[in-house]
Amino acid sequence: METVRPPLWITDQAGAPLLRGMHCSGCGADLFPPQEYGCIRCGAYGDRLRERDLPAVGTVLSFAEVHVHQSHPVPFTLAEIELDAGPIVRASLAPGSRPRIGQRARGLIVADEGDARLEFALAGEAQS
Predict the structure, then answer these.
(1) CB-based contact 55:85 (threshold 8 Å)
(2) Which of 9, 27, 37, 93 could make an S-S bridge to 42, C-beta 3.0–4.6 Å?
(3) Are strands 88-92 and 49-55 parallel, antiparallel or unpaired?
(4) How far apart are CA 22 and CA 5, in angstroms?
């Protein structure tokens, strides 16, 4: 039997993406992705972990341009982004992005052949 996972992101009333994360009442950490094994900071689990939607806004910590991939058109850029809420996520950047460490990034929803995906756009760059 196949497990159906809930989406990792939703949109707010203005259409901005929110990442489906968790909040630990034990230490106050916000976590992503959601899981039930326990807080990565203090180990709290069970009812001490609550769902929390996290704004997809943060700062570029590192990035890499991918030139060879089996299933995605290349080149594309992956970045590690520290969300303002605390968790670090790895995500695709908008095509043509020229990231810098410390640059601000904001999630955006991109329509893709009848489906939608989440990627991050960099502050100061035009969004497609």
Answers:
(1) yes
(2) 27
(3) unpaired
(4) 15
The whole-number pLDDT of residue 72 equals 83
- Kindly tell me if the per-residue pLDDT of 117 is higher than 90: no
**Do residues 32 and 19 touch, judged by C-beta distance below 8 A?**
yes
83 close to 17: Cβ distance less than 8 angstroms: no
Kindly report each contact of residues 88-95 with a partner whose C-beta sits within 8 Å and lies 24 or more positions away, as own/partner.
88/61, 89/19, 89/32, 89/58, 91/118, 91/119, 91/120, 92/117, 92/119, 92/120, 93/63, 93/119, 93/120, 93/121, 93/122, 94/119, 94/120, 94/121, 94/122, 94/125, 94/127, 94/128, 95/128
Query: Do 61 and 89 touch, CB atoms closer than 8 A?
Result: no
Q: Which of 22, 12, 29, 5 is nearest to 107 (CA)?
A: 12
DSSP assignments along 30-41, one per residue: EESS--SS--TT
Supply 92's token pair.
């695709």
